[in-house]
Write a structure and sequence with these properties.
By secondary structure, the protein is α/β, with parallel strands linked by helices. The protein binds iron/sulfur cluster. Its cofactor is [4Fe-4S] cluster; Mo-bis(molybdopterin guanine dinucleotide).
Length: about 725
Amino acid sequence: TKLTHVATLETKSTCCYCGVGCGVIIESDGKQVTGVRGDPDHPANFGKLCSKGSNLHLSAKPLLQQQVRALYPELRSDRTQTRQRINWESCLDSMADQFATTIKEHGPDSVGFYISGQLLTEDYYVFNKLAKGLIGTNNIDSNSRLCMSSAVAGYKQTLGSDAPPCSYEDIDHTDLLFIAGSNTAFAHPILYRRIERARENNPHLKMIVVDPRRTDTARDADLHLAILPGTDVALFHGLLHLCLWEDYLNHDFIAEHTEGFAEFKKTVRDFTPAKVAQICGIKEQDLHLAAQWFGQAKAVLSLYCQGLNQSASGTAKNAALINLHLATGQIGKPGAGPFSLTGQPNAMGGREVGGMANLLSGHRDLNKPEHRAEVAALWGIDEVPAQPGKTAVELFEAVRLGEIKLLWIVCTNPAQSMPDQHLIREALLKAELVIVQEAYASTATVPYADILLPASTWSEKSGTVTNSERRISRVNGAISAPGEARHDWEIACQFAQKLALKLNKKSPDFSYAKPEEIWNEHRASTRRRDLDITGLSYDILQKQGPQQWPFPEGANQGKARLYEDHQFATSNGRARFINVAYSPTIEKTNPHYPFALNTGRLRDQWHGMSRTGTVAQLFAHAAEPVIEMAAQDMERRFIKDGDLVEVSNGRGMQRFIASASDSLQTGQTFVAMHWGEEFVSGETDQNRIGLGVNTLSNPAIDPDSKQPELKHSAIKITKAECP
Ligand code: SF4
């Protein structure tokens, strides 16, 4: 923080929205945030900010803070009562009592934690240590399960490590951008500015976009492959089939640096252009053109996101795309590689510290005894439990079934974001104790809280985050948190110390004085791991700016690109072709439910809008939730633009305003995921029009990544009578 001549304090920090991870400069008077601008020195954005980032300061206005923030701990003794304000000590004592009693009576797996990719790395680290190290349960998962776990599984299966191999600067060196399942223009706007600039500078740079919708990104493409929902694996196999046929393969690379190609080749032989065109609903000539561009480009950079990940075959989609890169040798060189974009600001940091049900600190795996032993030694405990934890959808199901009795939700809003909302809400009512740790008192999950713990948020808290290109940036607080809100890591540590006394067992250390001490412990856990950051420090991050991992001891900078030596992170150093099968979406449209429902993001909103929803300017782009439909489908059903329609399937019903869209093919629909519980006028049951689009979305999960199929459900649509 530095003092400028007009007595404005300037604090360098990081935007708290998407995984691009832009650097910001917070302007404040020490008490209030007065402005925000892009940090010209930050390599993710070089001073630019998108509409969300440049309005960050408006969400931190003091009056708004008072209206929407959780300010004091609150507790209710039973559910017939409203929560009452309580002091922190009594609140944490009560929580520790309830945890200790439940753990003693029902065992450590009777409690669970559901945390968030919005947390800082240090917060994530201590919650993971609390669950796995002190309590002895792996029942801790993150909302990152909903956004990137298929990318993690895809990388690990093929390349041996959860490490995106590319950098943003690869956009400047590529000849072909292959964007699959990502509306980058909306979801990662500053990265998209970089793409636009690269295309201006290099007229030969081509862009293929794979997306069922004609999004803003797809409209800019040289070739848009508008595949039918869920057919990505067939498309990628079809492209590889043509690369084989036209001999676009890099035979030396395959022979020297990979394994499993011979087996995989047999699978893709079946994916003839005619068959793929029919499965995907695209023209054969477009498939040929895409294969030619992919096969002949000197450098191909694939960018992909939720369109591949949020699927019951998300891991297969990731692996099939990486197979294409391996077969053509498009990895480990400038401008090339499979580059998954993370949705949340610190989904990557959560992965690094193992803050998920199947992971451990330093990119270790829970299912490996040697990794559990290493983490137990780091934490000074006897063992880390081997029993796998419940992943997001499984966790709430276990709560609903009464197996998990106490649930602690941190910085996330499952009563809006999880699929099949009725089951989630049933689970929240069934739990014996729901603790919600939140900065915002306005989320759909807060009414279910028996205990509300007020947390600090952006502009108030300090630590680190890691963006999509493995770059670690400092987050710095510029002002104090309002009311009695505390930092997430502090709450976890204070609770852990109380619980350890009540459990009367050997506890790992939770006596951290500041986030840097937690980060240093995390840093030590990465020694000789793929993400080794033992050469990095808060001091270096502060003085030299954000750095990419790995950054081992002795290094003076991080690595922009992985696998340049073609040594992969597998046991024999070879990348693996994964012989994935094509599986259609779990639900098929049928005469009863004839429409495919796709969900996604708008340019100016973020997640459940707890922050962006407080900024009036951000509603100029889209003011209300609508269901987008093809005009022909509306005409056939006598639905006019602006009509209220009922959208339903076996999981529930939701009312939306219908909106004609030229971005959709017939039979397809789209709803933004930002709006939750909506009322037409006044909050009465009669006026409730639904709980948001996740009333309808499918909780089916990918067998490897356990990520749910949020991108596809079958629905029917009828005109509604106004309530
Ligand atoms: Fe923030 Fe993402 Fe926009 Fe950058 S692109 S300013 S990180 S929301």
